[in-house]
Prior knowledge:
The protein has helices spanning 2-10, 26-75, 81-111, 114-117, 125-139, 162-178, 225-231, 237-247, and strands at 123-124, 144-151, 157-158, 185-193, 196-203, 251-257, 261-272. The protein is an alpha+beta fold. Residues 16-46 form the HAMP domain.
Amino acid sequence: MSQISHDINEDPTNKRRVPDLHRNDELxxxxxxxxxxxxxxxxxxxxQKQFVGDVSHELRTPVAVIEGHLNLLERWGKDDPQVLEExxxxxxxxxxxxKHLIQEMLDLTRAEQVDxxxxxxxxxxxxxxxxxxxxxxxxxxxxxxxxxDSDLAPDTIIKxxxxxxxxxxxxxxxxxxxxxxxxxxxxxxxxxxxxxxKISVQDFGEGIAPDEQDxxxxxxxxxxxxxxxxxxGNGLGLAIAQKLVESYHGKISVSSTLGSGSKFMIEFPLLKxxxxxx
Length: 278
């Protein structure tokens, strides 16, 4: 065990582990815990490496845009009020985009560590859904957001930090609103099915092509890069939602028809409901 520690200290990516001792005593448990600690440590190191690489890559464009406008102003644009105004507005927009991107990257990194930070948190599904839907209705008053909880058992509890459930729902509803065009209607549905809770968010907007549907949960993936940039997206929202859902042993999927809209579905293991206690 000491030799393995030394090897990993020399090379943090080293995959050496303590072999199975086939013992049910304290020494056997120590070996298992030691291996699990190494796995987790290396996973977090990889997450940090990916975080730095992703942020560095994604910040290049907004930094280049701001630099371009500053160079323009330095050469001659500061004497032209119209160019000056356009450059200031463009730079402000890109700086806001950078701030939003960094926050989303931090959210994604935190989502990958919820098993340590929030191991015992629970949430009342109906309470969180009602509050989130009402908040979204207030923000997006030009949309009709319908919530159907007729198939949801009373006092349905799942194992999740309530802020994370809210974040998942906001991401999905925001995404539905962002890609809705003529029909400004969103349907949110929640149902209890045996040992699961299923929640769906449906829109009637642009839809997603079949060959894109297995890629949309990838970090930084954008179905239409030009339009997504115009709408203010970084391609991280669905990646954050997926990571949060899966961190709480849930599942997320999408059903979509191009030109007719999309339906995102999430499910979580049921912790308890009032109907179970009767």
